[in-house]
User: Fold these one by one.
Assistant:
Number 1:
Amino acid sequence: MKHTVPALDSPISVPRWRSLLFVPSHVPRFVGAAHERGADGIILDLEDSVPQDQKDESRRQLSASVTKVGRKGAYVLVRVNRGLRALAADLDSAVIAGVDALVLPKTASAEWVSEIANAVSELERERNLAQGRIRFVAQIETPGALQSLSAIASAHPRMIAMALGPEDFSASVGGAP
């Protein structure tokens, strides 16, 4: 199941994920066993599933976690936080070899995607990583974002997928998740 994710200047190649497994990045036993689950992609979560007081340690362990979950060739994705300070810390930890995509929660605009893309490009250059290799999956979690789906989808060549974030979307419209 080993894969390659081409750089942005390569012909468009979109992974075919039949299953994505969210793994709380702060729980060593989940991280250690994730590669055995058979998922096409494993999402190391730095966002909602990680308690605030454990986020820094999750970031410090991210490189080792990426290696562990990718052992059997699954795509490795990292869900980052939305707030600027947390996002900056997450990008600093997550823009590394072995990460195939970033999951962007609460994506509301094309401009936000472009800003993140610029930051990731800068980090890739600084770290001598292939430019554009790390792709994006946008989570749509508000009704306002539905109005901007087309713009978000075409905001940057890194964007390869969008997904509805059902829990937050339900909460944002006053529904029960």
Number 2:
Amino acid sequence: MSEDGTNGRVRPGHTGTGPGAITPDGCAVDLYRRLGPGTEPEVIGSAVPAGATLLELGSGAGRVTAPLAERGFAVTAVDESAEMLEAVGERAPGVETVLSSIEDLDLSRRFDAVVLGSFLVHTADVETRRALLATCRRHVKDDGRVLIQREGADWHVDLPRERHDPAGYTVRIMSAEPVEEGVNSVHAEYVFPDARWTQTFLSRPLTHEALAGHLEAAGLAFESYLTEDGTWLAARPR
């Protein structure tokens, strides 16, 4: 257990600033409590049967967990931060929560769908990506789906750029600087009327072909993109 109350590993190259607790990978708990669900619940909900069992890997503070539970899905939320999972419990009482790193997770049961959101598939470390996808394959039913959120093709270029959320805050991607071959250090800012957070993290851009190859190595097969911008995809067990 780390000093901030999590069992998470410190992620080299990942830092965060702002009010409240910061997790080992640079995520600010109070920031994630404020972020809205976006379109993710609709994307996920339309890709799986009604009432499906969902394993959400890296749930954070439950911004997507709660809307999915409200839609009648049986969600199990996994995160390596105890404080993030406390927020999940506040947003979605009754949802099963599991304190664990994704890489080490083994629940000895399988789900209709496994969700790997938050662009986690873009981790800079090849072994970590292999472990993330192995966890997905280990927990999905043979006739189930793995739903993965990926970066857009041009997300590391034409920076800085910003997006104003209808909820009243601004997200700015300030820079994406190369730090090693194929890996960028991305710096983001989240500005609210009364607070500001930053997060710096490492990200490895992936072509469609590269990602499909990683899926295949994990025993998964690319099935289809779920969004027009290609930021969500579905894979099937092979």
Number 3:
Amino acid sequence: MSILAAESANPLIPPVGEIIIGLIAFAIVLFVMFKFVAPQFEKAFVARRDAIEGGIARAEAMQAEAKASLEQYRAQLAEARTEAAQIRDSARAEGQQIIEELRAQAQEESARIVARGEEQLASSRQQVVNELRGQIGTLAVDLAGRVVGESLADDARRSGTVDRFLDSLDGMSATTGATPGDGRGGSSAYVPQDAR
């Protein structure tokens, strides 16, 4: 019988008691794994997935923010360029206006200087004409006295004769457009009426 028992105990097949104990132990381990370990794995998996998805969302948000900042920067740059162009145009217009004002002031100053010069020239001309009238009158009286052969020393007669002579010279130059005695018109010698 011992041989039969030795033959019936197969070394490859474990005893039934061990199989039952092994199945119970396996069920306990499996229960513990599903009850305690698997939820921890699931939590870690969810946390990892949330971290990855959150990182992607944060990266997308940062990318959108960077894009918005870039658009804002470009808008500010375009606005700054527009403002710089307006400032440049305004400065150019102000410069042109200043140039025009300075040109107008220079023209006014030039006109004032020319007017003052013309006034001084007219005053000097009148002074020279008055001096020449006096000298021409004296010469005319002396010449008339020599022609007549007597002295025309009377101041009243001399003054009247000189004035008539100069008036006739002015009249002749006005009608002929030439100065007396230049050969273009009028008489080159005038004899006062008192001397006739």
Number 4:
Amino acid sequence: MTGPAPETPDIATADVGTADIEALRKRALTTLTTARERTALLTDCVEDPDLTAQHSPLMSPLVWDLAHIGNQEELWLLRRVAGREPMRPEIDGLYDAFEHPRSERPSLPLLPPDEARRYAAEVRGRALDVLESADFHGTRLTEAGFAFGMIAQHEQQHDETMLITHQLRRGPQALTAPDPVPAPLFTGPSEVLVPGGPFTMGTSDEPWALDNERPAHPREVAPFFIDTTPVTNGAYQAFIDDGGYDDARWWTREGWAHVRRHSLRAPLFWRREGKQWLRRRFGVTEVVPPDEPVLHVCWYEADAYARWAGRRLPTEAEWEKAARYDPATGGSTRYPWGDADPAPEHANLGQRHLRPAPAGSYPAGESPLGVRQLIGDVWEWTASDFLPYPGFRAFPYKEYSEVFFGPEYKVLRGGSFAVDPVACRGTFRNWDHPVRRQIFSGFRTARSGAV
């Protein structure tokens, strides 16, 4: 996230009532506080050398993320919303994600850990003063507290990025969390029929939705079947055992070249010991649990598995219809379970567990059609390129979404256990290069037809 001039002008909005203002203020305060508590946990659990080291060329040093979070909060809440003078303009370039790629960031004169913490804390103190007097109307940026929601989502997105860095980090375990509550073995149908016809994709009225989720628009989808749950480790092992990584039939041309070039044999962090598959998870080596959704696979691997299984990846529109369409009303809900905000019984979110829950968990979170775990657990690769919706307008800056549109990126949906509810909803869109495996990515498959 960066802070150039907006691509669209601020739009005047109607006044917000006093009760609504207080509710928005409380929501903004809660989400900002939750994000900062998570940031502190992720950066206080290791010593300074681990904060300043680059644990993978794919990721920034943790201390860069920490100061970047503060810098973006200053740019948007203090400078743009409140019109205040810059606190430390000399560091803006250091923490501009587009000016310096991740591989270069360790060589920059970054703020040391204690200074980065002080800077982020000072920014937060001033931002809360701005929040205390905010009236949430007058401009598109401030309407319904959008700027505060944008910053909370931005920080939580970096909290997920920092958790990925922790997974890549070598060394003793630094993070712990309780495992998900064991779920009864899922014995329901393996797939669900999603009826053909139109549905409303995207949103025009979710106050904190980001630009690529907008606007709501009709989308026609032919009938299709989709997996009731994400593909599991056990199912993916069958693909490996059947020689899936050695058979070019299942791979796209680019995917096969990638597999050969990098000698891929299994998901990232897996290794075979005798007849058993083991994985490394946040500093601990453990047996790969067969009933969990498979994790740390790239798009090419997901696509190859689907072909091997005689199926395919769902399109982004199919995924969203499965997640949001309510056949009883013909409308689209915010989440698979309805319009209520996520609760612990609905989905595995917020880093309260550091692993996916077993496939078939969270029956309270299933869609009206009976599809489970569409939100949380693992990001799900789709077949679709990351493209704008009809009528898309960049806001508040084109570098959030617009510069990434194109076939170089594939869409992921649904969030993961590492995602906070504020940054995950039925319309939320994530995207990445099809080679990425360090992210908390899995998938489910689909097939066309109504029979």
